[in-house]
């Protein structure tokens, strides 16, 4: 009996980490489970150091918008090696450091000063600097729709913010990739009512009649 309880508990513990399995009489379903943090940072690199939001933003832009897989550590090492080390240690990375890295991997990048309403018409991802909580911070503009801005924030993950709120933080400076416009537009989020969290697919994946049989197929008190 104890072994049975331990075995059952082990199954439940492992399934809660990776997936939830449901085995009714007429089918088997597996639903992947992601934690809150995993969903927030699903396509954003989380910065590892106080002054590394720049390298994390670049890694996020390159990996998730231009399909050039890299890591924050690789970007950090390159920009620190080729940048002004003393200035970086005091102030963090600059847009020039980021531009030089992007050019080194074949992405023709440059910095521009663009009003937000004009940027919304360009519709390609960009790195920008914002003033969050009293300090300057690099984020990726991952998308925009008619009412929201979708940000990849290395310290907060994916953030969906009303455009009017974002205007108070936006300073106008953006770093854009010029020679991959098609790929950039394809990865730029424009969906209305965008949600960071993926809705459950259960309504489409699970037949209603299968659920109806669930209570019928449960073992009775003397069926063990």
From TrEMBL:
Any one Pfam family match given in the protein's UniProt record, by short name: Peptidase_C39
InterPro entries in UniProt: Peptidase_C39 (IPR005074)
One BP term from GO: proteolysis
GO CC list: membrane
Start and end residues of each Peptidase C39 domain: 47-177
Keyword Signal among UniProt keywords: yes
Keyword list, A-Z: Signal
Signal among keywords: yes
UniProt signal peptide: 1-19
Alphabetized GO MF terms: ATP binding; peptidase activity
Protein name per the record: Bacteriocin resistance protein
């Amino acid at each position: 009996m104890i072994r049975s309880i331990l075995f059952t508990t082990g199954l439940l513990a492992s399934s809660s980490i990776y997936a939830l399995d449901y085995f009714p009489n007429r089918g088997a379903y597996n639903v992947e489970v992601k934690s809150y943090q995993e969903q927030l940072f699903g396509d954003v690199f989380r910065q590892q150091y106080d002054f590394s939001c720049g390298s994390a933003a670049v890694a996020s832009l390159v990996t998730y918008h231009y399909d050039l897989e890299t890591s924050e550590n690789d970007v950090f090492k390159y920009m620190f090696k080729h940048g002004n080390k003393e200035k970086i240690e005091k102030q963090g990375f600059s847009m020039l450091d980021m531009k030089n890295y992007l050019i080194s991997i074949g992405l023709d990048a440059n910095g521009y000063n663009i009003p937000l309403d004009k940027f919304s018409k360009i519709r390609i991802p960009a790195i920008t600097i914002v003033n969050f909580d009293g300090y300057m911070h690099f984020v990726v503009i991952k998308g925009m729709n008619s009412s929201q801005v979708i940000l990849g924030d290395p310290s907060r993950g994916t953030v969906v913010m009303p455009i009017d709120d974002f205007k108070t933080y936006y300073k106008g400076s953006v770093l854009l990739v010029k020679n991959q416009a098609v790929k950039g537009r394809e990865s730029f989020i424009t969906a209305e009512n965008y949600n960071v969290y993926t809705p459950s697919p259960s309504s489409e994946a699970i037949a209603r009649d299968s659920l109806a049989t669930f209570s019928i197929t449960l073992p009775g008190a003397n069926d063990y």
